[in-house]
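$ run holo --ligand "phosphoric acid mono(formamide)ester" --emit tokens
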Amino acid sequence: MQQQRNILSANDLSKDDILAIFDRADHLRKRVDLPVIIPNTQIGGLLFFQPSTRTRIGLEVAFWKLGIKPVGVYQTKLERTMVKAESLSDTIRTLNAYVDYYCIRHPESRIFDQVLPYTDKPVINCGNGHDEHPLQALIDAYAIWTYLKRLDDIRVTIVGAPRYSRAAHSFLLLLAKFKNITIYEFAPDDLRMQEAYKNIFIANNNQYIHLAKPKWGKEQVVYSTGFAPKNPSGTFSQTIRNNYKITVKIAQKLGNNCIILNPLPRIDEIDYEVDALPVAYYFEQNALALYVRMAVFQHFYL
Ligand code: CP
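-- output --
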């Protein structure tokens, strides 16, 4: 077991880490059968305090394929006779006796303040509030890597509600490690990307351009974020949300070599009719995630 190596933010991943993970993912992708690769006795703790389909199940499957045994906690202990639920810090101190690392999803952005002081095991952020989702960013970037064979010198349109998309925040921080990237943002004013994430991206010689009207056709990647009807900026009508929806008409304006990504789950930000078009890459992106999650654990922890 390596010493503690947390992945709380995309900032915790160096460019060398990212490229090494992609290299391992490429290698795993060529293995059709994907048997248990390394017999080991590790136990992976999945602590998911918010619903998840892709990340939770995807990590479980990646663990099984790597020979890691998953155990899960979905709420801290609470019974009728208890005044309140057991604290997360007590849960962590208890699980320290059993697990080798923690994969945590939680609705609170500051949740790791209640975790890190109580463990020396690696902690992997699987989505903390509206802050970050670094594993998803690796998956999203790898989808581009498989298609374009590069992350430098690309143009990406982010459409929807990046302000509250933890996947979009981590995606931007991860792309910040690469060069000469132009991001066009098409989002309502209240839902534009937060400056803190943007500044890190721009500081590395990349451009982030907000567009009042999109110029479909200039980009190689469309990154569609979810756009929830309710978020901390308020309630958004269907009419407003429809302005940021990917329709067949928009998909047909995109270049021949453009791909549409979405971290999923989809609310209604991409019409189902788009799924049949060659530009729709989001389910391929989801399928590639298995290899990325496996590669992350091989790279850092096995
Ligand atoms: N993309 C993603 O994090 O999906 P889940 O919420 O289903 O894990």
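-- notes --
The pocket of phosphoric acid mono(formamide)ester is lined by residues 52-55, 127, 133, 136, 263-265 (CB under 6 Å).
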